[in-house]
Amino acid sequence: MVEKKGKKIIAPIIGIILALVFILPLYIVVTNSFKTQKGIFLDVMGLPFGEFLTLENYPQAFEQLDFIRSFFNSLFISVGSTLFIIIFASMAAWMLVRTKTKLSGFLYFLFAIAMLIPFQAVMLPLVNLMGRIGFLNPLGLIFMYLGFGSSLSIILYHGFIKNIPIELEEAAIIDGCNTFQVFFYIIFPLLKPITVTVSILNIMWIWNDFLLPQLVINRPEWQTIPLKMFYFFGQYSKKWHLALAGLVISMIPIVIFYLFAQKHIIKGITDGSIK
Questions:
Q1: Which of 127, 140, 201, 216 sits most deeply, having the most CB atoms within 10 A of its CB?
Q2: Can you give the pLDDT at residue 270?
């Protein structure tokens, strides 16, 4: 009994310590984004008060960050990439599940193995190839995200589709549906739970990605929020009050998205595994 009580006490304490470790950097960034540069240097951990409190950091950072343009760049690339991943990954997973051959098993194995290959191992040949065919632009970036995001998405869809009775498809075929009609009218609507999960995982990954856009995007007007933030932070690294305000602005969209979408991540994966 004593050991059980000890475990019950220790677990919350460890949880509180871990929460503080993760919350502390966010606290420092947010509080210092409302301070003057002098206020940051005098007291990093303190709250902004008096002459050290200012609201001018955000309008200046918003303007210098060119937030509207970079926001829509990130939105276009994230949503476009995710839509292509959903369509192609779901169709590929459906065919792999319904085609009982050695080739389909081998292809599924290849998609699983592809997740183990680090991006750094292929980034230089990939960028070199895309540059030769004129794909170092947002459309080329979407195409590359489709390739890198398909493996995990196909595996998630594959596990979900295996639990859908094949009799539904057979009945649709008897009623005169062709292959595309069977998929888009019968199968795809049933994939809504896992599609929500795939959408959330890919949007959050693509929205926050920095390395691939840095290699592909070569014009300021195409830069995404992480890429714009990188150059902005370098430019204003001595003006920490503006840099931190810009960092908070860049975090707001994805934080809001995550707060609304977090419950669907676990639900979709759970539905796919125990449906």
A1: 216
A2: 58
Q: Which residues contact 245 (CB under 8 A, 6 or more apart)?
A: 33, 34, 57, 58, 60, 61
Q: Which residues of 62-87 are buried (b: 16+ CB within 10 A; e: fewer)?
A: eebbebeebbebbebbbbbbbebbbe
Work out the mean pLDDT of the chain and round it to a whole number: 84
pLDDT of residue 15: 79
SS3 64: helix
DSSP state of 192: H
Cα 245–Cα 76–Cα 85 angle in degrees, nearest 5: 120
pTM greater than 0.70 = yes
Predicted confidence band at 275 (pLDDT cuts at 50, 70, 90)? very low
Please state, in angstroms and rounded to a whole number, the distance separating the CA atoms of residues 35 and 239: 11
Band of pLDDT at residue 79, cut at 50, 70 and 90: very high
Structural fold of domain 69-274: MetI-like fold (1.10.3720)
